[in-house]
Amino acid sequence: MDDVLFDWSGAVLKLFNSNVRIEECKNWNFTENLGISNHELWTKIESTPGFWENLELLPWARELYKSLCLRYEVYICSAPSRDPECWSGKIISLREKLKVLSSRAILVNDKFLLAKPGTFLLDDRISNVTKFQDHGGTGILFERPWNVNNVEKNKVHYIYNLKTQDIESNK
Question: Which of 78, 70, 56 is CA-nearest to residue 142?
Fold first, then answer.
């Protein structure tokens, strides 16, 4: 969800009034991109009312979600933070901005627990993709500035044209 469908990184950069551009973020860990501590990052996010439900959609989000829904049974999997507002905020964002039913949202930190043959995970974090694959699913690394050298360039076209047999090849 974060940085695949919703602009978490942009929201964080804005929250910290950073001059860093998203294209300059070469690390998935935003504490390194901003030069702050993990405590500073999460304290500021957790003390910002509505942070999670006010995340903006990324430009391709609607098209990507619709394309996936035409071909697959889609669930949105997202890792929640420790912030209690995160859980409800993510569900509200999905429901209001993408019309995702709450029953189609799964909030879990260990996404690999959902892996099995015939399932796939789109994620911007290499370790999530690798663990998902190691546990029997198909992981697809989603292009973001911190992983740009490892992925397919045209997100929507690539995902839409992904063949069922490619996903089911792990069976």
Answer: 78
Give the model confidence (pLDDT) of 61-113 as tens digits.
Answer: 999 899 889 888 999 999 999 888 999 999 999 999 999 999 999 999 999 99
For 161-167, which contacts have Cβ atoms below 8 Å and span 24 or more sequence positions? Answer: 162/120, 164/71, 166/138, 167/118, 167/119, 167/120, 167/138
Taking residue 53's Cβ as centre, other Cβ atoms within 10 Å add up to: 18
The C-alpha atoms of residue 2 and residue 7 are separated, in whole angstroms, by 6
For the question of whether the overall pTM of this predicted structure is more than 0.85, the answer is no
On whether the CB atoms of residues 8 and 2 are closer than 8 A, the answer is yes
User: Where do we find the tokens 């405590």?
Assistant: 39
pLDDT tens figures, 37-66: 989 989 999 999 999 999 999 998 999 899
Distance CA(69)–CA(64), nearest Å, equals 9
